[in-house]
Specification:
Distance between the termini: 43 Å
Radius of gyration: 18 Å
Largest sheet: 5 strands, mixed
Strand order of the largest sheet: 1-12-11-6-7
Number of domains: 1
CATH architecture: Sandwich
Length: 151
Protein backbone atom coordinates (compact mmCIF):
# COMPACT_ATOMS: atom_id res chain seq x y z
CA UNK A 1 0.00 0.00 0.00
CA UNK A 2 1.21 3.50 -0.81
CA UNK A 3 0.67 6.48 1.49
CA UNK A 4 2.38 9.84 0.98
CA UNK A 5 2.65 11.88 4.16
CA UNK A 6 1.50 15.52 3.90
CA UNK A 7 4.28 18.11 3.50
CA UNK A 8 5.95 19.07 6.78
CA UNK A 9 7.94 22.16 7.74
CA UNK A 10 11.37 21.38 9.25
CA UNK A 11 11.44 21.95 13.02
CA UNK A 12 7.66 21.90 13.45
CA UNK A 13 5.75 19.35 15.49
CA UNK A 14 4.47 16.62 13.19
CA UNK A 15 0.97 15.54 14.17
CA UNK A 16 1.70 11.85 13.57
CA UNK A 17 -0.94 9.29 12.63
CA UNK A 18 -3.55 8.29 15.19
CA UNK A 19 -4.13 4.78 13.88
CA UNK A 20 -2.79 2.42 11.21
CA UNK A 21 -4.17 -1.09 10.88
CA UNK A 22 -1.77 -3.54 9.28
CA UNK A 23 -3.54 -6.27 7.35
CA UNK A 24 -2.72 -9.06 4.95
CA UNK A 25 -5.29 -10.91 2.80
CA UNK A 26 -8.09 -8.87 4.46
CA UNK A 27 -7.08 -10.07 7.95
CA UNK A 28 -5.34 -8.10 10.68
CA UNK A 29 -1.68 -9.01 11.19
CA UNK A 30 -0.92 -10.18 14.74
CA UNK A 31 1.93 -7.98 16.00
CA UNK A 32 2.75 -9.95 19.15
CA UNK A 33 6.53 -9.80 19.76
CA UNK A 34 7.07 -7.94 16.45
CA UNK A 35 9.47 -5.05 15.88
CA UNK A 36 8.27 -2.30 13.54
CA UNK A 37 10.50 0.19 11.72
CA UNK A 38 10.05 3.12 9.37
CA UNK A 39 13.21 4.54 7.75
CA UNK A 40 13.24 7.81 5.82
CA UNK A 41 15.94 8.14 3.14
CA UNK A 42 16.58 10.80 0.50
CA UNK A 43 14.74 10.20 -2.78
CA UNK A 44 17.79 11.59 -4.60
CA UNK A 45 19.98 8.83 -3.17
CA UNK A 46 18.08 5.80 -1.87
CA UNK A 47 21.41 4.46 -0.51
CA UNK A 48 21.69 7.59 1.66
CA UNK A 49 21.88 7.28 5.43
CA UNK A 50 18.65 7.05 7.39
CA UNK A 51 17.61 10.65 8.13
CA UNK A 52 14.77 9.63 10.44
CA UNK A 53 13.92 6.32 12.09
CA UNK A 54 10.60 5.61 13.73
CA UNK A 55 10.41 2.28 15.56
CA UNK A 56 8.82 0.31 18.35
CA UNK A 57 12.35 0.02 19.73
CA UNK A 58 12.75 3.79 20.24
CA UNK A 59 9.03 4.18 21.10
CA UNK A 60 8.27 6.45 18.14
CA UNK A 61 5.86 3.73 16.94
CA UNK A 62 3.31 2.48 19.49
CA UNK A 63 1.46 -0.81 19.13
CA UNK A 64 -2.13 -0.07 20.17
CA UNK A 65 -3.53 -3.59 19.67
CA UNK A 66 -1.24 -6.53 18.91
CA UNK A 67 -4.10 -8.84 17.96
CA UNK A 68 -5.81 -6.27 15.71
CA UNK A 69 -2.56 -5.17 14.03
CA UNK A 70 -3.08 -1.53 15.04
CA UNK A 71 -0.25 0.95 15.59
CA UNK A 72 0.08 4.69 16.20
CA UNK A 73 2.75 7.18 15.16
CA UNK A 74 2.69 9.80 17.95
CA UNK A 75 3.35 13.47 17.33
CA UNK A 76 6.97 14.63 17.50
CA UNK A 77 9.22 17.44 16.36
CA UNK A 78 10.85 16.53 13.05
CA UNK A 79 14.01 18.43 12.13
CA UNK A 80 15.63 16.66 9.21
CA UNK A 81 17.19 18.41 6.20
CA UNK A 82 14.86 19.92 3.63
CA UNK A 83 14.14 17.49 0.82
CA UNK A 84 12.05 14.66 -0.55
CA UNK A 85 12.21 11.36 1.31
CA UNK A 86 11.09 7.80 0.62
CA UNK A 87 10.06 5.46 3.40
CA UNK A 88 8.64 2.05 4.08
CA UNK A 89 7.03 0.48 7.13
CA UNK A 90 8.61 -2.90 7.86
CA UNK A 91 7.43 -5.50 10.36
CA UNK A 92 9.98 -7.99 11.69
CA UNK A 93 8.26 -11.09 13.06
CA UNK A 94 9.68 -13.28 15.86
CA UNK A 95 9.90 -16.15 13.34
CA UNK A 96 12.56 -14.23 11.41
CA UNK A 97 10.12 -13.23 8.63
CA UNK A 98 10.20 -9.59 7.55
CA UNK A 99 7.66 -7.74 5.42
CA UNK A 100 7.09 -4.14 4.29
CA UNK A 101 3.40 -3.20 4.39
CA UNK A 102 3.45 0.51 3.59
CA UNK A 103 5.60 2.73 1.40
CA UNK A 104 5.51 6.33 0.23
CA UNK A 105 7.11 9.73 0.39
CA UNK A 106 7.53 12.62 2.82
CA UNK A 107 8.47 16.16 1.73
CA UNK A 108 10.22 18.42 4.24
CA UNK A 109 9.90 22.17 3.63
CA UNK A 110 12.33 24.88 4.82
CA UNK A 111 11.79 26.52 8.17
CA UNK A 112 11.65 30.32 8.16
CA UNK A 113 11.32 31.19 11.85
CA UNK A 114 14.05 30.02 14.22
CA UNK A 115 14.71 30.73 17.89
CA UNK A 116 17.56 33.26 18.15
CA UNK A 117 19.75 30.86 20.18
CA UNK A 118 19.61 28.25 17.40
CA UNK A 119 22.36 28.15 14.78
CA UNK A 120 21.37 29.90 11.60
CA UNK A 121 20.53 27.47 8.84
CA UNK A 122 20.38 28.38 5.17
CA UNK A 123 18.96 25.79 2.84
CA UNK A 124 20.17 25.30 -0.69
CA UNK A 125 17.97 23.84 -3.41
CA UNK A 126 20.99 22.04 -4.84
CA UNK A 127 20.92 18.34 -3.82
CA UNK A 128 19.25 19.05 -0.45
CA UNK A 129 22.37 20.72 0.93
CA UNK A 130 22.16 22.61 4.18
CA UNK A 131 24.73 25.24 5.10
CA UNK A 132 25.16 25.62 8.84
CA UNK A 133 26.40 28.94 10.23
CA UNK A 134 27.21 28.69 13.92
CA UNK A 135 27.62 31.82 16.02
CA UNK A 136 30.18 30.01 18.21
CA UNK A 137 32.49 29.01 15.38
CA UNK A 138 33.89 30.77 12.32
CA UNK A 139 33.84 27.58 10.26
CA UNK A 140 31.09 26.91 7.74
CA UNK A 141 30.03 23.35 7.09
CA UNK A 142 27.99 21.92 4.25
CA UNK A 143 26.18 18.65 4.55
CA UNK A 144 25.11 16.55 1.57
CA UNK A 145 23.53 13.94 3.82
CA UNK A 146 26.61 11.75 4.00
CA UNK A 147 29.54 13.93 4.92
CA UNK A 148 30.40 17.33 6.32
CA UNK A 149 32.73 19.56 4.34
CA UNK A 150 34.52 22.66 5.58
CA UNK A 151 34.30 25.71 3.35
Amino acid sequence: MIYNFPEHRCGDTWKGIYSITISECNSAVNLTDCDIYIHFRSKLDIASPVFLELSTENKSIEIISKEDGTIRLPCKIISIPVGDYSYDLQVNFPTGRSKSYLTGSFKILPQTTRVSSDPYSIYSSVKDQKIILSGDDDRILTSDGERLNYI
